[in-house]
Design a protein that fits this description.
The protein is an alpha/beta fold. 31% of the residues lie in helices and 23% in strands. The strands form three sheets. The protein has an eight-stranded mixed β-sheet, covered by helices on one side. The protein has a two-stranded antiparallel ribbon with strand order 1-6.
Length: 244
């Protein structure tokens, strides 16, 4: 039986976050997410759309769920004749792990970056083995409303899923961040990948998330640096460019 998945959109743009900032990429946004960060700027993708637009397809659409061949068709339509890396983003890709595994295999030899919260260790290990980069977004209880979210990160990272793949962390912070959760997030990143780069992203205020004052941003960065982590403070650059 063919593996299918629910897709929100496929498009080509410039990477606006993390290590590949400024890189031309094809984005495959999968639909569905149970994390529900209040600052999410793609909350519309929590629900599965009836169909997905064909890039440059003059109104053509493909009905959900999509099979692997159809997603490859959309990627090639977004980047005709090209070899741009692919970002698997969401939503939360790990919620459709069988589809992600099959899609990564089919996308070869294109390089793939997985953008994920990384809250499921088994799924994370399977996906990480098939991608070039993992952009792991450490979530905070204050912005998700989920008191156990850092415990879930801890269990997932403890599996060693990120040990052998090029990994960087992103942490979105707003004005409600608590010192105790920040210390825990810093400890998790340092224990999982010593010396890793953490992209500290001041929130783009959405969904009631208050902006983070500058003096607090400096203090948070210092906490990460004290753990031997590399720190880059980078906002959502695609917002500044006015692109997706």
């Amino acid at each position: 039986m063919a593996v299918t998945g629910n897709v929100a959109e496929v498009f080509r743009s410039w990477q606006g976050e993390g290590r590949l900032l400024g890189q031309r990429m094809v984005f495959v946004r999968l639909a569905g997410c149970r994390v529900d960060c209040r600052y999410c700027d793609t909350a519309w993708a929590f629900e599965v759309p009836d169909s997905v637009a064909v890039p440059e397809g003059k109104g053509e659409r493909r009905p959900n769920p999509l099979d692997i061949a159809t997603v490859i068709e959309l990627v090639e339509a977004a980047d005709p004749g090209g070899s741009a890396p692919v970002s698997l983003t969401g939503g939360e890709p790990l919620e459709q792990i069988e589809f992600v595994v099959a899609l990564c295999d089919a996308l070869a030899p294109r390089e793939v970056m997985l953008e994920t919260a990384g809250l499921d260790g088994e799924a994370l290990a399977r996906a990480a083995a098939r991608v070039r980069w993992v952009a792991c977004d450490i979530k905070l209880p204050s912005s998700t409303g989920q008191a156990d979210v850092l415990d879930r990160h801890d269990r997932a990272f403890a599996t060693g899923a990120l040990a052998s793949v090029e990994t960087f962390f992103k942490i979105v912070v707003d004005g409600d961040v608590e010192p105790s959760e920040w210390e825990r997030a810093a400890d998790l990143a340092a224990a999982t990948r010593p010396g890793a780069t953490v992209y500290l992203q001041p929130v783009t205020p959405l969904g009631g998330s208050p902006a983070l004052p500058r003096e607090r941003l400096d203090a948070l960065a210092d906490r990460l640096l004290s753990r031997g982590l590399a720190v880059r403070v980078v906002p959502q650059v695609h917002k500044l460019l006015g692109v997706r």
